[in-house]
Amino acid sequence: METHCGTDLAGGPGILLAVDEPERGAFFPATARQALDELGRVRVTTTAALQDLGAFGKTMARVEILVSAWGFPCITADRLALAPRLRFVAHAASSLRSITGPDFWQRGIPISQAGDAMAPAVAELALTYSLALLRRVPRLDHGLRRKGGWERARKIPRARELRGARVTVVGASRTGRAYIAAVRALGAEVRVYDPYLPPGDPLAPYAADLATLLPRTDVLSIHAPGIPETHHLIDAHALALLPDGAGVVNTARASIIDLDALYDEVSSGRLDAALDVFDSEPLPAGDRWTRLPNVLVSPHVAGATRESRLRAGQIVIDEIRRHLDGRPLEHAVTPAALARMA
């Protein structure tokens, strides 16, 4: 289904808003939608309506600016041929790997993404999880709910405060930096592992290799991209270096941690964990992670807050304005940058 909106259907560039509900309304509530409509001739469609090549061609024939998010089909050479007027893509989500390939990049169409909008939200959940693990919240809650809970819960190993805790951050990404700022504000001692950190970076003095950092870690928080170089970066050997009672927080990509190895450590009671991402999603009912008393889990929603969606919508609007005005984009992505992104 496709609808036409905008104040002047005769003028302005053709803009296709190809974002499904409920995310469309989350990105573009009434005021943001009005701002988008003022930038050109906005049409709205669903991602399901664009999967068929014929339907794709009919919809994209006059589109100059595409606003995409999750579920948009990969823009292959066949699809590019059906979108001859396409001049700019504003991706309201973060990862571009599912919609871009070599054909897209060869065409040279500028593209931006709104990943910056999610960084504060992801960092906040990672902070929440870090505090919860240090304060033994999963263990205390589970213990209190069991028979003889009060005394059982009171015997759980003493909690720790974030102030003075040794926090190791894997990945000085935008989410990693937002998390670092948050935990430092509460007094944590932060160290960083990121082989791409430039020498002049403010975090460089706090960087070291994993073999040095992990044995001195109370909370390990993952903020790296899910790329081949980070696959199972935190494996059984790395996990074994963590001291007893340490917590592992992952709000980034599941592939960075060997989750089987982590499960062995957590199920033994030696480590605690808080996970927003998993090797297979969605988790089936009764999954092994949901049955452990020292684990917090959430369904891949770290970046999905009301505020993050509003920020993303505003980034899209601002980027379209910059494109139309001929100004440099603030959130542009290049093939080189994509290689280091999730």
TrEMBL record:
Keyword terms: NAD, Oxidoreductase
Pfam families hit by this protein: 2-Hacid_dh, 2-Hacid_dh_C
D-isomer specific 2-hydroxyacid dehydrogenase catalytic domain span: 55-333
Keyword Oxidoreductase: yes
Record carries keyword Oxidoreductase: yes
Ranges of residues in domain D-isomer specific 2-hydroxyacid dehydrogenase NAD-binding: 128-302
InterPro entries tied to this protein: D-isomer_2-hydroxyacid_DH, D-isomer_2_OHA_DH_cat_dom, D-isomer_DH_NAD-bd, NAD(P)-bd_dom_sf
SUPFAM superfamilies for the chain: Formate/glycerate dehydrogenase catalytic domain-like, NAD(P)-binding Rossmann-fold domains
PANTHER family hit by this protein: 2-HYDROXYACID DEHYDROGENASE YGL185C-RELATED, 2-HYDROXYACID DEHYDROGENASE-RELATED
Family per similarity comment: Belongs to the D-isomer specific 2-hydroxyacid dehydrogenase family.
UniProt protein name: Phosphoglycerate dehydrogenase-like enzyme
